[in-house]
Write a structure and sequence with these properties.
Length: 370
Amino acid sequence: MRAIVAGGGIVGLVSAIALRKQGIEAVVCEQAPEIRAAGAGLGLWANALAVFDELGIGDDVREIGRPAEMRFRGPAGQVITTPGFDDEFHQYVLVHRAKLNDLLAEAVGQENIRLNARVVGFDETPSGVDVHLEDGTALTGDVLIGADGAYSVIRSLLLPGSDAVEHEGHLAWRAVIAPPEGVTVERGVIVVGHERTRGGYVPTADGTVYWLVNQFESGELIGSVKEQALQRAAHMDTEGWNPALQALIEATPEEVVLRNQIMLVPPLPSWTSDRVVLVGDAAHAMSPHITAGATLGVEDALLLARLLTATDDVASALKLYEQDRIPHYRRALELSTVVEDSATPEEFALNYVSFTHWMLTDSHWTLSHG
């Protein structure tokens, strides 16, 4: 069996690793001239680490990461407790996206990755799928995996009218920098502030710091991108208890600050055809306030590889995958919306850990079916 993977991001690369480990030939088509990551820090929860362990790269992933905890503070600095939930439901590993992408690309093997290879179309046949690239060439495989993110070309062709939409008013500002002189960051601080803001900072494994500011219902944007981040950081420190966040943002060069409009993929009626399947954000891009997009996406990759290995009937394997994943993400979206709609920092923290509890115990296929 031969799989064509559209997209060389985290989920696309993990898909190729999982397929190849099962003995399935996998070729990754990446539209960019290099494997690269958009963004800065990335949180990986225990279920994602279990996937990496099964693929034989878990220790390598941990080596480029740093253990962190998702515990929230209120705007006055108080730690918000979440009675009834053990430490494990707060713990994750923070990695730099670019370093993770490099590690995954090495595991796939450069000889199995085609760069400058944007997929622009496909034709399904009784025996496989012909995949058309922008340069006019074509590849033939048994299955096409759309791992090309929220702006997925594969999704738009498979399900016309399914384009990603703006999560209106929801923006994120972020960067990774070396801490400036006089600022020591020994542990992460994550705050739920006023005006529907969230953010904070986390030290990474290489001595840099990842800072992040989010806001729902952002309203009019005034000033430079960095000034916008500083304005929102002020909503997360009403007592002067946390000068490090402001200092980190102020020390970040303007051109390094990333500002992103959050995009969502509306719930889809289907993720598959007989020879084409969607994984990761191409199928279910959700709001990053739950910091679990990549974690959930790599589960898609492992499940799909297992199902394709279990049968020679590609269409049946894809249908089983869809039957598992669509209800799974329906529930994930419900819980994510509950977190978003939280009226207070205390509610946000409790609803958030309720989501991670579900993700790490009741929901995920990979750990319960290993």
